[in-house]
Amino acid sequence: MLSPRTLSALPFLLAAGALAQSAAEPVVQLDPFPVTAHPSGADERAAAVWVVAPDAAALPPARLADLLLGVPGLTIDQPGGPGGRSTLYLRGGEENHTLVFLDGIPLNDPTNNRGGAVDLALLEPALLRSAAVVRGAASVRYGPDVLAGVVHLGGESAPANNTTLLAEGGGDGFRRGAVSTNRVLADGNSSFHLGLAGTDDGERADGSRAERRFFRGAINTAFGATNLQVALWHARHNADSFPDESGGIEYAVLRDLEHRENRQTAASLRLDGKAGEGRWRVSADAAQFDAAVTSPGVVAPPDNPYAGVPASNDDTRLRRYRAALGYEQNLASWTTAVGLDAQREEGRDTGSLQFGPMTLPTSFSAERDRLGAYAETSGPLCETVTLVAGARADHYDDGKTRGTFRGGLLAKLDSTTQWRLNAGTSFKPASFYALANPLVGDSNLKPERARSFDTGLRRTFAEGRLLVDLTAFATRIRDGVDYDPLRGRLVNRAGIQSRGAELATTWRACNTLSFAGSLTYTDAHSNPGHERLRSRPAWRGGVSATWTPRAALDLTAALTATSDLRDNSKPTGDVMVGGWARLDLAARWRVTKQFAVTAALDNALDQTYAEAVGFTAPGRRLRLGVQAQF
Question: Measuring CA to CA, how many Å separate 269 from each of 185, 301, 323, 341, 626?
Answer without folding.
Answer: 19, 51, 9, 14, 35
